[in-house]
Amino acid sequence: MTTRVPSARRRRGTLMLCAAATMLTLAGCKSGDLVSYDLPAKSSRYTFETKTDDSKTVWEYTSAGATKTDAPKQSPCMGDVLGTNKAACRPEPLIFLRYDLGLALDNTVKAGEQHEIIVTGYYQPRLTEPPRVTSLKAETTFDGGRTWHPAATRATGKNTFTTTVGNPRRDQAAQGVGLRISATDSQGNTVRQTIPTAYTLR
User: What CATH topology corresponds to 96-201?
Assistant: First the structure.
């Protein structure tokens, strides 16, 4: 399971993103989906939220002004492509999460055992100097998100963390196992992603 990257750019106070962006199944921005939001030119703190089905992601990040060097010729700003705006732009420093759930071929995990999940934070490729993900907290739910339980997590590589989930018996998690991941990077940007059902038990 991999989170895809919504198009998020700052253009002289403008954030460009896919209005239909999702955390888990984004196939890309189609024409008509790309919209812009006017932001103050001064560096400020913002919140960006997306939701698809029951999965929800909330980012909090600081957006700084862009310069011409933030838009290399091989990856131009949308305004350059359309010929509507020549101002500088750059991706926003949003933390995205990639999961290795360790699923079997039937997309399930064995019940009643300890199970490891690998979560990796990453950024949009055009971000000139991406921060470093410094901490990650994981929680699990066995009742569709009504109650949450902390899960042990340890750093296992650059921007990579391993979470150990104590799977209950199958009848104790009839709706499957859900995850809530919260991460912070070296610039104070954060993300919280909630997936009420990440996998089911066998």
Answer: Immunoglobulin-like (2.60.40)
Residue 156 contacts residue 118 (beta carbons within 8 Å): yes
Q: How many CB atoms lie within 10 A of CB 39?
A: 18
Quote the pTM value.
0.77
At 9 the pLDDT is: 44
Rounded CA separation 159/146 (Å):
29
pLDDT at 129: 81
- Region for residue 78 given its phi and psi (left: phi exceeds 0; alpha: psi -120 to 50; beta: otherwise): alpha
SS3 at position 56: strand
Element housing 95 (H / E): none
Amino acid at 171: D
| 3-state SS track over 111-178 | CCCEEEEEEEEECCCCCCCCCCEEEEEEEEECCCCCCCEEEEEEEEECCEEEEEEECCCHHHCCCCEE
**pLDDT average per 10 residues of sequence, the chain (202 residues):** 42 34 32 50 87 92 73 60 66 92 96 98 83 98 95 97 97 96 97 97 96
